[in-house]
Structures are given as C-alpha cells and as structure tokens.
Amino acid sequence: MVTEEKKQKSGIYLLPNLFTTAGLFAGFYAVVAAIRGDFESAAIAIFIAMIMDGLDGRIARMTNTQSAFGAEYDSLADMVSFGLAPALVVYQWALLSMGKVGWMVAFIYAACGALRLARFNTQVGISDKRYFQGLPSPAAAACIAGWVWAGTNNGLSESVATGVALPLTFACGILMVSTLRYHSFKELDLRGKVPFVVMLVLVLVFALVATDPPLILFAGFLIYAISGPILTLTKLKQHKSDRK
User: Fold this and answer.
1) Do 135 and 180 meet the contact criterion of CB atoms below 8 Å apart?
2) Which of 162, 168, 183, 209 has CA atoms 20 to 30 A from the CA of 123?
3) Is the dihedral of CA 79, 151, 230, 53 positive or negative?
4) Which of 131, 137, 101 is nearest to 118 (CA)?
5) Which of 77, 69, 75, 57 minimizes the C-alpha distance to 13?
6) CB 207 within 8 A of CB 154
7) Residue 41 to residues 35, 114, 150, 156, 215: CA-CA distances in angstroms?
8) Contact, 149 vs 220, CB < 8 A?
9) Which runs of consecutive H residues, i.e. helices, occur in 79-157?
C-alpha cells in the first residue's frame, strides 16, 4: 500500500502537461523556422504556444490536476516560448543587421522575460489576481511575433522592419519587468451566463481578426501593452484624489 501511494505521488498528470509540451514544441519550432528563414511560420508558432499556455492551466484547474511539477514545467516552457523564441525570431528577422546593438536588445528582452517569470513565480498567492505586475510574457511575445508576422505578410522594407522592431523589442522587455499594472481578466466568469450582445461582439471580433490576422493581432496586443501605463496612471490619480 505504501509503495503504491509513493508511486502515485511521484507520478505526473498527463493531460495538462501534454498542452504544456505542445506549447514548448511550438516555441522550439519558432526558433527552427526562424533559422531557416520562414518567419511567418515562426510568428504563427509563437501564437500557437500562447493558445497552449492558456489551455494548460485552465485544464489543470478544471480537472483538478494542478501540481508543483506542472507549475515549474509551465514556467520553463514559457521561458522558451515567450522569452527565447521571440528574441531569436526578431533578431534573425530584423535585428541581425544592427550588429552588437541588435543582439544586445534581443538579449535584454530574453533576460527580462526570465526575470518576469521568476518574479511571477515568487508572487503566486500573494498578489492581486485581478492584475499582473508588468506586461505578461505571452503578451510581450505576441507584440514581437505580431510585428514579425505583419511585416513579413505585408513585405515591409528592412529599414522599416528594423526601425520598429528595435524599440519595440526593448520596450516590451522593460515593460515585462516594470511595476505597471495590467488587467489579468481572471475575474471573467466563463461558465456564467452573459447577455446576447456579448456573443454578437465576439462574432464581430472574430470577423475583424479574420480580415487581416497578423495586423489585427499585433494592434490588439500593442494596445494591451500600452494599457499598462494608462491603467497605472489612472489608479495613481484616483489614489491622490481619494487622499484629498
């Protein structure tokens, strides 16, 4: 009996970790695709990794298969998919011609991604679940991948691609390690009932994304990245007015 219990405790849950592995595979594939010059596939792979990252946690909670191993594995997979992969993809696509400046900016992004994940892991259970402190690494990766995808899809010149990619990559890295607040949307009740108009809005959103997926996704995540400073300034102003 004791041996069976030990075996049960030492095992891992298969279902959520399968999705984490799928996300890790997508992140690794993004790097491989970028090395061979297929930047569109590389960008799409990062977005697929985002979907897998969103599913593994929800499935673990729904099936009651959460574990310390799963949390650590998910964090390591995120570092590959949203830290290293976007940095290497954007470097190969637009920053390679910048020499040392290019790879240093890419490294700063990757390092900030690691720091963001480490800070997030230490704040689990003590931070306000309604907000993220700093730009979440999947959203930062989506900004980078969105620009690569949009640029590749629209045939942008190298100067334009690099001119935007350099400050964007640096800014996303700094926003990840900032103390700015971002909505987590974790308070949304996906199981509860919603007004009919909400479904209509979702249909319109899907239709909008379908018109030009790379450009709309890039714009959407860029707006989310900008929302952090705006939200933080709004909260500070409210706090100051309340004190008066």
Assistant:
1) yes
2) 168
3) negative
4) 137
5) 69
6) no
7) 11, 24, 12, 17, 15
8) no
9) 85-90, 100-122, 137-153
What is the Cα–Cα distance from 17 to 13, expressed in whole angstroms? 7
* CA distances in angstroms from 209 to 119, 214, 217, listed in the order given: 33, 8, 7
Which phi and psi (to 5°) does residue 181 adopt?
-95, 140
The separation between the first and the last C-alpha atoms of the chain, rounded to the nearest angstrom, is 65
**And the tokens for 230?**
């705006």
Least Cα distance to 47 among 197, 168, 160, 216 occurs for: 216
Task: Give the angle 210-211-214 at the CA atoms, nearest 5°.
Answer: 75
pLDDT, averaged per 10 consecutive residues of the chain (244 residues), comes to 49 87 97 96 97 89 86 94 97 95 97 94 76 93 97 92 96 96 76 78 90 94 95 83 70
Q: What single DSSP character describes residue 97?
A: G
Q: What's the CATH number for 14-185+194-243?
A: 1.20.120.1760
Q: How many residues appear in the chain?
A: 244
**Secondary structure of 29-46 in the HEC alphabet?**
HHHHHHHCCCHHHHHHHH
Token representation of residue 181: 């607040």
